[in-house]
Amino acid sequence: MSKGIKITAMILTCVLVVLSTMGGVWAAKKLASMPFGDNVSMASLDKEDKSVGMLNFLVLGVDKDGSRCDTIMLFCYDGYSNRVNILSFPRDTMVKTGGWNQKLNAAMGIGIINVQQKKDKEPEEEVIRQIKKMTGLPIHYSLTVNFEGFKEVIDALGGVDFNIPYNMNYDDPVQDLHIHLKAGPQHLDGQAAHDFVRFRHNNNGSAPGEYVMGDEGRIYWQQKFIMELLRQKLTPQLLTRLDEVFEVVTRHVKTNYSMQDLLKHISILEKIDFEEIGSYKLPGEAKYVGGVSWYVQDEEGTLDLIRKVFLPRSKEEWEKQKRMTE
Known about the structure:
This protein is of the alpha+beta class. It has twelve helices and 15 strands. Helix 3 (107-116) crosses helix 4. The chain is globular.
């Protein structure tokens, strides 16, 4: 079981907080005076180009020491249709770096070495380069958070109601990780939400339902959790929790996204229908190569997915595609 957080924190620390600005001018002014985590600059990121109609935000969830990046999600905004789509990357995705095959979640550790050797300023640069290479998409913003930050944000938001699909029982004394959740609807605090998104299998090795697919199954339930979190928390009541949420963000988030960017994007956020977020996984399959478990990308499938879903298009084009698939 990986130590890394298993869910995107951008939804929790960026989108959920950012959308509170929709409450009015007062909220915008209040947010403008707040710090948005540890602000950094990264050479591998792209500059926004409004003429392209695309805005992409990479979210990285890392373990306690920041050397392993196990949650990797790219949030893509289509400026023509105002749609948001999420592309998740399995942590075991095979990538080539330094002439060797490596798992994508090891890219952060490689990035740390790059920083030590003064090749990059931030460890995230290596992850960003790999995602851009796999998708061909620009990346404008990046956000990194650890699992402690995730738990604290959930608590700051007042927890979330969620229907746990299966009984979950897993213990790892080495990591001091103990997951014991009962199936059924319940209110999850930060610790329980953390346990849910980290679950992979039970102590006896059984993997219920979608979890039999390994990391793919976990991604499936992570995205379900995100959708429910958005549905419950994107309300005017979020304004009452701004101070507490931002206090957590300041301590746990590392990003190039600034308050000025936030204010610049308020008009965009007001147009997004968060009930229509699309969620996808990098095309490919899990397999053993040389006795090692990998997730091998389907490059042709990826190009097809990018062309059909992640490239900007008009609302009319989206509606036409939706009718064709019904």
